[in-house]
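F.,

This is the one I mentioned.
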C-alpha cells in the first residue's frame, strides 16, 4: 500500500444541508469546502480510501477495523438528516491486510464484524464524510477504522 494523501473531512451533520435554518455560522462555507475536498479526493483516482472515525463503533483500547463487505446507514442525528444515506461496499480483503500489518507492527487493533457478515450499520460519524465522498464522485474501495474509547480517557 502506498499513501497517496490524507485529508481531514468534517463529520458533523450541520454541514450536510446549507439551506437548513438555524445552522451555526460557517456551516454553508464548510459544506462547500467539504464538497470541493471530496471532488479533489475523487480526482486523485485512488483505489482505496481509509476512513478513520472518532464517532463509530469503538473498542475500549484497540483500533477497530470494520471487516464487513457492505456498510449502510444514515446521518440521522436528533431526528434530522435522515435523508442523507450511504450504502457502500467495503473492502474486506484490504481491511484484513491492514489489520494483519498493524498487528505485525505491534499496533493494538482488532477486526470488527457486525451481525456475522451482514451489512455493517453506519451512523453520522461515518456517513457524513462518506456521503460527501460519494457526492464528489469517489468510486474506490473503502476501509473504515475507529479510534479506541481510551482516546477520551487519555485526554482528561
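My design for it:
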Amino acid at each position: 500500500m502506498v499513501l497517496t494523501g490524507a485529508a481531514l473531512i468534517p463529520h458533523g451533520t450541520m454541514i450536510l444541508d446549507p439551506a437548513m435554518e438555524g445552522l451555526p455560522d460557517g456551516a454553508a462555507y464548510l459544506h462547500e469546502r467539504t464538497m470541493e475536498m471530496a471532488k479533489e479526493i475523487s480526482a486523485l483516482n485512488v483505489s482505496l480510501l481509509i476512513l478513520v472515525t472518532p464517532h463509530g463503533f469503538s473498542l475500549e483500547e484497540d483500533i477497530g477495523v470494520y471487516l464487513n463487505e457492505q456498510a449502510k446507514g444514515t446521518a440521522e442525528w436528533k431526528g434530522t438528516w435522515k435523508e442523507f444515506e450511504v450504502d457502500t461496499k467495503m473492502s474486506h480483503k484490504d481491511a484484513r491486510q491492514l489489520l494483519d500489518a498493524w498487528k505485525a507492527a505491534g499496533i493494538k487493533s482488532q477486526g470488527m464484524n457486525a451481525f456475522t457478515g451482514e451489512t455493517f450499520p453506519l451512523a453520522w460519524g461515518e456517513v457524513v464524510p462518506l456521503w460527501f465522498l460519494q457526492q464528489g464522485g469517489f468510486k474506490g474501495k473503502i476501509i473504515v477504522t475507529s479510534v479506541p474509547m481510551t482516546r477520551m480517557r487519555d485526554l482528561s
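DSSP finds four helices and seven strands in the chain.

Talk soon.
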